[in-house]
From TrEMBL:
One of its GO terms (molecular function) is catalytic activity. Residues 300-312 have a biased composition (Basic residues). This is GGDEF domain-containing protein. It comes from the Bacteria. It comes from Szabonella alba. InterPro entries: DGC-Regulatory_Protein, GGDEF_dom, Nucleotide_cyclase, Rev_trsase/Diguanyl_cyclase. It holds the Pfam family GGDEF. Residues 299-322 are annotated as: Disordered. Residues 177-311 form the GGDEF domain. Residues 313-322 have a biased composition (Basic and acidic residues).
């Protein structure tokens, strides 16, 4: 009984188990007045030996007065032939976890019939399982996020794909953001494929993707929507002059030779631009169609240039391109 207390008829502690004694360190419990050392919370009204004898066999809830709020459970029984002495057998109850951690208790500090250590093993197992489940959920969430990211990414260039573009357009329109839409088509790309092979074409597309990313902001969306077609959404940018200057930089950038093995691949870019503030309300399909019209106007004008699309004034049949 490593948690026992043996009291004299007057309430003096005559013997204490090694585990309960550890709570009091070097000063020990022997010779102390039990009722000045422990407070019995339940049953209420226990303040002396006679009261304790009256509740013999009942469950006690006790608070050691010289410890940090540690609650004990126990039972008191009179000892026959002990001159009115009492034997108390105590346990930590639900506070066993805190007691083990605070006093560094081990299995040797508990009675062989005490299930405290089994309880601790179960709690540790539960904590381990809970942690493993949490780690598994994190891995599953990471795999889900990676799958969603892959579903929105063009595998060749690493840019956004058409699905991601549609989601971006729906979001910026729903949020009421103004934006510019730029449709880019590569000129002479077929000649690169036919002359140097598809490996060269793939290399050119990747280089174009990198060039477009370097000419845009992190908040912009650059998507590959076809074999050699790209669309850029410029969030919070609806100024025609700025969009035209960006388009001119892209045209100049993509007119430079792209090296592949021992070859110089020459392409150019034709660009069409539509702006959300020209529409009330903006419609993604219409804006894409209008940017496409502006793009083909660029091709007809000689390729390697950009055109802005403006909706036709009311009563006019054709849009105005410049």
């Amino acid at each position: 009984m490593p948690m026992h207390l043996y009291l004299s008829a007057g309430g003096t502690i005559l013997s204490a188990g090694p585990t309960i004694a550890r709570l009091y360190g070097k000063n020990g419990l022997i010779g102390l007045d039990f009722f000045a050392t422990f407070e019995i919370r339940r049953p209420v009204g226990i303040s002396g030996p006679a009261d304790l004898a009256r509740v013999a066999g009942a469950r006690l809830i006790m608070l050691p007065l010289q410890t940090d709020g540690l609650s004990l459970r126990g039972v008191a029984l009179p000892l026959a032939g002990a001159g009115g002495g009492m034997l108390l057998n105590l346990s930590f109850g639900i506070g066993v976890v805190e007691a083990v951690a605070h006093y560094r208790l081990t299995d040797a500090d508990f009675a062989v019939t005490d299930l405290a250590m089994e309880l601790l093993y179960l709690m540790e197992a539960k904590a381990a399982v809970t942690d493993e489940l949490r780690q598994l959920n994190l891995r599953l969430q990471g795999a889900r996020d990676a799958a969603e990211e892959q579903a929105l990414t063009d595998t060749l260039t690493g840019l956004r794909n058409r699905r991601a573009l549609d989601m971006t357009l729906d979001r910026v329109i729903a949020e009421g953001q103004s934006f510019g839409l730029m449709h880019i088509d590569l000129d002479y790309f077929k000649a690169v494929n036919d002359t140097y092979g598809h490996a060269a074409g793939d290399h050119v597309l990747r280089e174009v993707g990198q060039a477009l990313m370097s000419e845009t902001r992190k908040m912009d969306t650059v998507a590959r929507v076809g074999g050699d077609e790209f669309v850029i959404v410029f969030k919070d940018l609806a100024d025609p002059g700025r969009l035209s200057r960006i388009a001119d930089r892209i045209v100049a950038r993509l007119s430079l030779p792209i090296s592949f093995e021992d070859h110089s691949c020459m392409i150019s870019a034709s660009i069409g631009i539509s702006i959300s503030t020209d529409y009330d309300p903006p419609d993604p399909e219409r804006m894409l169609d209008d940017a496409d019209q502006a793009l083909y106007a660029s091709k007809k004008a000689g390729r390697g240039r950009a055109q802005l699309h403006h909706p036709a004034p009311r009563g006019d049949g054709d849009p105005c391109l410049n």
